[in-house]
Specification:
single chain, mainly alpha, 0% strand
């Protein structure tokens, strides 16, 4: 009986996570931005629970960046793990940092060599995703962010080789799932261009 008021408050149409307001401000998103699509996106593009949870943490701004860890008094320093020149926020880690920017340029060049897909991704496409970008490309963006974050955790410089290792492992898993569910043709259509 006592939880009913809390439950009603949560369900109100105008209540939404604080992270949503912060992302709206930081990324200059308007009221028409499809937040419901963004919240569903990681679950629609991948079955990998690690990647789903990773994107969930980004969406809700709870990814353990140095800035957040410093605020929680877990880390003494909030500076970027790669450049050590700027505060390590989610935006800086995945977009603003020179190491990240170079990393994305390399990935875009690789994708352009394999396909004719548009790689003119925006800051919002990288950070939150975009439900209008094809599933394979969204997986590559998600794997790119995951690679950057893993490099941060291991104090290593992000590289295309590390990213490629993650892709190979991911594609092997996707192929196994496709074979198990008799969806190899769908797999080939989606991932074939990246295998060769």
């Amino acid at each position: 009986k006592g939880c009913r008021k809390i439950y009603d408050y949560i369900l109100r149409a105008n209540s939404y996570p604080t992270s949503r307001r912060k992302w709206n401000d930081e990324l200059n998103l308007d009221d028409t931005f499809n937040w419901n699509g963004i919240y569903k996106l990681p679950f629609n593009i991948t079955k990998d629970s690690n990647l789903q949870w990773f994107q969930y943490k980004i969406n809700h701004r709870i990814l353990a960046t140095n800035y957040l860890l410093h605020k929680m008094r877990i880390k003494e320093d909030s500076m970027c793990s790669f450049c050590n020149n700027h505060i390590e926020t989610i935006k800086h880690l995945f977009w603003d940092c020179q190491s990240s920017s170079s990393f994305w340029d390399t990935i875009k060049s690789w994708i352009n060599s394999k396909s004719t897909l548009n790689t003119n991704w925006t800051l919002t496409d990288i950070i939150l995703g975009n439900d209008h970008i094809d599933k394979a490309t969204m997986n590559l963006i998600l794997l790119g962010k995951y690679t950057l974050y893993r490099c941060k955790l291991h104090n290593s410089v992000p590289s295309f080789q590390i990213f490629k290792t993650h892709i190979i492992e991911f594609i092997r898993t996707q192929l196994y799932i496709a074979k198990k569910h008799n969806r190899v043709l769908e797999f080939d259509k989606e991932w074939g261009k990246y295998i060769t």
